[in-house]
Amino acid sequence: MILVKDLKRYYGTGETVVKALKGVSFEIKKGEFVAIMGASGSGKTTLLRILALLDDATEGEYTIRGLQVSSLPEAERSYYRLTQVGYVFQDYALINEMSAAENVYILSMMEGKSRKESYEIALEALDKVGLKGKHSKIPDELSGGEKQRVAIARAIAKKPDILFADEPCANLDTNNSKQVLDVFKELNEKYGQTIVMVTHEPWHTEYVDRVITFEDGNLVSDEKKRNR
Ligand SMILES: Nc1ncnc2c1ncn2[C@@H]1O[C@H](COP(=O)(O)OP(=O)(O)OP(=O)(O)O)[C@@H](O)[C@H]1O
Ligand SMILES: [Mg+2]
Questions:
Q1: Which of 83, 94, 119, 178 shows its CA 20 to 30 Å from the CA of 70?
Q2: What positions does the domain ABC transporter occupy (predicted)?
Q3: Distance CA 92, CA 158 (A)
């Protein structure tokens, strides 16, 4: 589904150049749940942002379902990003003045869907993450884990090809982290959602199929955790 070949990302030029990714290659199959690990500064966020089309690689190839996205014109990249890619941030990135349902349905509304259809899509997504009955709460009335689950609902409402998450549990205690990881696992097992998640915590890898580890801009290990 995702094919990455000799991907490089350099920041700056000349003497001050930072080589965040030094040429990484790997493949992610449809339906896999992959964890990306590695020390701070090893290139995890840089990689995720490129895969989610939020940033460009300096060099290398990147294809999704055979489509060479690295060389698509910006308008098509933008369309693909909006309709096919889900992204979950460490800090939830919710709008505080809006309810859970509104935070989720705003994207469908922007796509031009009707208010009614957008609302139905939002409620279905909130159900999937276990937030039935909380759709009228605003972020301040929710726990950290619930906020992150609203953000996951927003990311999956458009039924993306791939769901990316950059340290989604970084601000959560163990209990809330488990709720969020259980949601990812269920989305993966029940709906076949392909997921790529960056994490620092070794215990999180119990939830995934495969662990890819980065060190200083290089992919240094690729380990299968369970057979599907
Ligand atoms: N916009 C930028 N400009 C310059 N350097 C950057 C930029 N973004 C990242 N870097 C550098 O690239 C390297 C990789 O950063 P990246 O954020 O990908 O690491 P990370 O593995 O996600 O780290 P963390 O675990 O702390 O989130 C680091 O040396 C970082 O300082
Ligand atoms: Mg990071």
A1: 94
A2: 2-228
A3: 17
